[in-house]
Amino acid sequence: MNVSIKSKAASVEFQQVSKIYGGQVTAVDNVSLNVNAGELVTLLGPSGCGKTTTLRMIAGLEMVSSGSVFIGDKDVTLLPATDRDVSMVFQSYALFPHMNVFENVSYGLRVSKLPKDELTEKTNSGLALVGLTGYGDRLPSELSGGQQQRVAVARALVLEPQVLLFDEPLSNLDAKLRRQVREEIREIQTNLGLTVVYVTHDQEEALAVSDRIIVMRNATIAQDGSPRDLYEQPADSFVADFIGEANIMDVIINNVDSQSNTAEVHIGDMQLQLPSRGIPAGTAKLAVRPNRIKLSTHKSTSDLTATVRKSTYVGNHMEYIVSTEYGEWFATTDNVDQIHNVGDNVYVHFSERGPVLLPD
Amino acid sequence: MNRTVVLWLAVGLFGFCVLPWYVLEDGLWSFEWLDGYPFDTDYAPGLFLLLQGEKLWLAPIPLVLVFPLLIIGATKRHAMFSRVLLITGTVGLLYLLTQGFSIGIRGWNSELLNLFFGELGDRQFGFGYGAMLVGTAFLFFLTTGIAARGIVNGDVFVVGAIGFVIALVTLFILYPVLNMLSSALQTNEGVYSIRVFFSKFFSDKIWGLHCLTENRSCGVAWNSLALALCVAALTTLLGLVFALVATRSGLRQAHFLRPLTVLPIITPPFVIGLAIILLFGLSGAVTTFVADLTGTNPTRWVYGLPGVLIAQLLSFTPIAFLVLIGVVEGVSPSMEEASQTLRASRWETFRTVSLPLMRPGLANAFLLGFIESMADFGNPLVLGGNYDVLSTEIFFAIVGAQNDQGKAAVLAIVLLIFTLTAFYAQRRWLGKKSYTTQTGKGDSGIPATLPRRILYPSYILVALWGTFTLVVYGMIVYGGFVEVWGLNHSLTFKHYITAFNFNYGENGIHFIGSAWDSFWTTLRIAATAAPLTAAIGLVTAYLLVRQNFGGKNAFEFGTMLSFAIPGTVIGVAYILAFNVPPIELTGTGVILVLSFIFRNMPVGIRAGIASMSQLDKSLDEASLTLGANTWRTFRSIILPLMKPAIVAALVFSFVRAMTAISAVIFLVSAEHNMATSYIIGRVENNDYGIAIAYSTVLIVVMLTVVTLTQLLVGKSKTGRRSTATPIQAA
What's the complex ipTM? Predict the structure, then answer.
């Protein structure tokens, strides 16, 4: 670990920020958020949800239509990208094709008129940090996709920015490389204590890399929380369905025990005692992850009966679609040795932990 | 201290205190003016004029100019910063222009001012370099002030560039054209009269329809319109046929068609006309042959509509081909394959899928052909005979015995209405209607071969046209070596010697041929105009592709407008506008350079747009987030990556400046004669030999330039340039 690259990590804060294009299209609608110094926060959401616009407003590549942006304690709302202490790693990497790796990495330092020897030293330690020592003379076109990506990271790092931004940095890498690169990014971030804002539409990537995830939908924040919170305690059916897969079903809460905050829910003979999460008795939704739906050939007392509609072998697990009185559900199991065939009658129950109540 | 303000303050003060304020008769670089400088009032800088108590109306200018000293220490966030600059810029520019337009060679420029202020008893010439720098400083004070208001993210470079381009377009396109419109409203005595305008505008000579009923010629507007419609339809058809043969015939030799596209670029527009005369004129090779064969008298049939039509077809078909080859290639082969797998035959596929997909492109080629034909001046001048068209009528209204500027202006307006309508239609109607660029994704399909009923006739057409083109260009080369065409066909170097003779004397080479003067002038002016055209074109392209600002659509329309303004119109507009102060340019080389810059600007813009759209926008953004400002980004990221486009723009504007005739013929002077107008002069004296020899030399020179640059650019493409590709693909 080379010490010559340090971190000047600062927090990021949005206060009621909106971005409206051409007076009509609202890309970001009254969003407030904050990212603590040294934290890696991911903006996650389907395409068109406003996550990239949010990132670009942090960078200063887009100007807010209303609201304020703070980096550290400084109001940067009116500063353009050039004047903000923020670096960005682009989806396409945006390496300058007419400059070699060294020139690319040192570009920002050159622009800020660093003395020559300091510039060389910084650039080299930046390259060392991403494991590309000795690649300085190559042109970007002579590097593999993963190497280009690292050059882009080094180029952003050597400026020691207050905030480092990643715009879908892994989407141009092949699947196997992704896991490796994302771990490298995470490692550099924790070692240097950088503030990172990371945009992705891949929920698995987001779960793996983040301290905190902000899920966005239709230009607003749907939920903000730790990866585990989002997966296990989704705020609504959109988040439940977007992060991981979930069977969302309509249920009726018979009564809520105000002492233990436990809700009692019936689905046919199946009776569930679930954390009520503040939802009153009446109609509600229930989210059940596919691996929390258990299928068996032997009926226990409270099981529902179901018919297998589809049965798919995908290597390390089985995927089923079963049809019950209450709808078609998607279930997975690790048991690939004893499979249920299409048309079989099976018995279904939910595991104790896992199903989560959502407001209607 | 704000560096931008200091810079423009320095420029403005230098202009006011050091450079001669008024236009110099012999140009800046003759240094004639040093004799008597700085006290001679013709050569004095503004400061010395005032100190001597001369031209006192200039006095407010330096006062306004130093106004920004108030905020020179302030940052751009300071409340007064933008206000002071806005006031300086606006007041300065307005005052500079007002005094320039109000006081001319004869004192006050209008009776009203005379009445109001009394006789001035003094006068002034046009703006010189001093005034120009002061004006520039005011302009950039204004844009810096606007930028400080937060417009376009408060970017000084971008706002400055936008302001600069707008100022240039206003000064050198809008002002002359509007000025011409206003002169159309005047009688020959200079009195405004709407009635005179209407009687001129609706004159029988323009709109008469006698050719339908009796044996007289129709109005020039109808002549032009009929010709342009024929040419547009036929060039579109031929261009389509060529494009189809080039891409969908399966014929490997078809790529020979591509070099065709270079021909019209390097051929001066009237040269085809000359060749047509050599072939079909009264003593033309074909005419005499046929006359001998049939025992009839040779006729002048080719002069008039047939000749102009043939010449324009030869000239403009390659342009249609250039447009349509892109369109034909843009039709995704997999759509045709899809149609075929749905059991359509080749003919049905072509008729129901390929052709409809090409429709917007066809309309585009049609409108381009229409505008080109309307604007063409060289061919109608050489071949028109009694078939008058607008572009030549404008010329004769000015240079002929009539010298009727009002009539020229009215004709120019009619011509402008036609071309602008076509231009507007092309942009509004077709701009958004393209089927060809739906996806950037690669297409694995193979272009379908054409159905036979189209393919075979196409082959015949291509072969005929190809042969004819070869014959025409053969004639041009051959004609230069013939003693006197039609009378004495013995071969001779006489014409080349007359035009390009030189000998070695004591002081080196003496260029004693008659053509050298215009040849060197042409080279010099084209070489001056080319880099300026490319620079303005590329900066404009950068603004259009990379920046967002209010009024961008109007900005784009304004900058592309000059494409639709025929050269003859620009020519007339320029002599009307720049003959008198405050901008006095007639008879100088500068007016030629300016006319080339603004005539060819759309070419530079297009080259820039095409190449800049290929550059990933995140390259700019990466540079910005790394702390570079827009100017630095433009200089160290965009420009280096645009080298091929820059070279292309340079070559195009150079070559177009060498071949231009329509605007040039109004603007040349004895001192600054251009090759093309020299050649036209020879043609008018029936001196075809020299005209053709000179044309050949021009074509060879330009062919060399184009080929050399293509070799150079081609090489650089295989080197570092190719590195851009993987990044764009990502």
Answer: 0.85
